[in-house]
């Protein structure tokens, strides 16, 4: 049982809604009409609901989360990002962050729909409490860190607009630097905490499956590198006053490392996790 065999229509509908939300947020960025922002938010919420319904149905049929190949991995990543965006939008009311979240979710879903499915081998070992906990925590944490990157990009754009002699396009369309910085910081704290818990559950799962907590698998090494990058960012904020532009740049660098760990390691290096991108 794969994403190809259970209601494909739900995933197509979710993809269409995420894409429409992207258009809505782009129009909101240019025209600043509050109605467009509400419509775009409603569209991404509807997309999340259809996406979650399809994922739940697949999970029930498979007896575990669908995470066996690249198609399923992209779907779970998109679901986590849309869900995390909705949570953080409620907390901070940072409306314009959708201009980063919606297109990223839509692109992942478009890639997921376009990719061919792969049969799940019988007796798959990708089951159990520790595995499910690992997946939920890791993907939720990565989603929060992706949004931190989005807030960091918006921070740099707004700072450049403020410093410019002629305050142009972004100055009137983006929120204050303080709001962008605090949002990014909260996203990093949330993502780092979840990432840490996810790595711990992953170690426990590795012990159960491969007989060792740590096997020097490339994914394990780069996951540790990613963790250290964000640990350095938080340490810098707490002890050295890394705020504003420096923190924003670090969130972008951290997300680049995160993307390489998520996909690049599997494609270019291999290891235990390579099967998730086949």
Structure notes:
Keywords: Cytochrome c-type biogenesis, Membrane, Transmembrane, Transmembrane helix. Its main location: membrane. It is a multi-pass membrane protein. It is built from 8 helices and no strands. It has 278 residues and is mainly alpha-helical. It folds into 2 domains: 118 residues; 153 residues, no CATH class. The longest helix has 35 residues. It is globular. The model has no long low-confidence stretch (mean pLDDT 86).
In brief:
With 278 residues, the protein is an all-alpha fold. It has helices at 8-31, 34-62, 70-92, 98-114, 129-163, 177-210, 218-239, 244-268.
User: In terms of per-residue confidence, which ranges show pLDDT below 50 for 5 or more consecutive residues?
Assistant: none
Instruction: Note the gap between the termini.
Output: 16 Å
Number of strands: 0
**Biggest sheet layout:** none
Q: Which secondary-structure class do the elements indicate?
A: mainly alpha
Q: What share of residues are in beta strands?
A: under 5%
Strand-helix topology:
Layout: H1 8-31, H2 34-62, H3 70-92, H4 98-114, H5 129-163, H6 177-210, H7 218-239, H8 244-268
What structural keywords apply?
mainly alpha; globular; 2 domains; 75% helix; single chain; 278 residues
């Amino acid at each position: 049982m794969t994403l190809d065999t259970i209601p494909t229509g739900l995933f197509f509908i979710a993809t269409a809604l995420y894409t429409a939300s992207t258009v809505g947020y782009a129009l909101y960025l240019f025209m600043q009409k509050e109605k467009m922002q509400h419509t775009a938010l409603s569209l991404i919420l509807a997309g999340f609901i259809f996406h979650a319904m399809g994922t739940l149905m697949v999970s029930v049929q498979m007896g575990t989360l669908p995470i066996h190949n690249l198609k399923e991995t992209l779907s779970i990543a998109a679901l986590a990002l849309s869900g995390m965006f909705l949570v953080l939008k409620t907390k901070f009311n940072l409306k314009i962050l959708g201009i980063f979240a919606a297109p990223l979710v839509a692109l992942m879903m478009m890639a997921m729909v376009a990719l061919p499915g792969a049969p799940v081998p019988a007796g798959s070992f990708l089951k159990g409490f520790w595995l499910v906990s690992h997946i939920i925590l890791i993907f939720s944490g990565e989603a929060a860190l992706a949004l931190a990157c989005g807030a960091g990009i918006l921070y740099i754009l707004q700072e450049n607009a403020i410093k410019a002699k002629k305050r142009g396009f972004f100055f009137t369309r983006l929120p204050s630097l303080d709001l962008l910085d605090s949002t990014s910081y909260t996203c990093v704290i949330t993502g780092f905490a979840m990432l840490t818990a996810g790595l711990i559950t992953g170690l426990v799962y590795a012990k159960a499956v491969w007989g060792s907590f740590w096997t020097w698998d490339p994914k394990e090494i780069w996951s540790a590198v990613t963790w250290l990058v964000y640990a350095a960012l938080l340490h810098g904020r707490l002890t050295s006053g890394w705020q504003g532009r420096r923190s924003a740049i670090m969130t972008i660098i951290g997300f680049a490392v995160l993307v390489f760990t998520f996909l690049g390691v599997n494609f270019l290096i291999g290891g235990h996790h390579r099967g998730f991108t086949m």
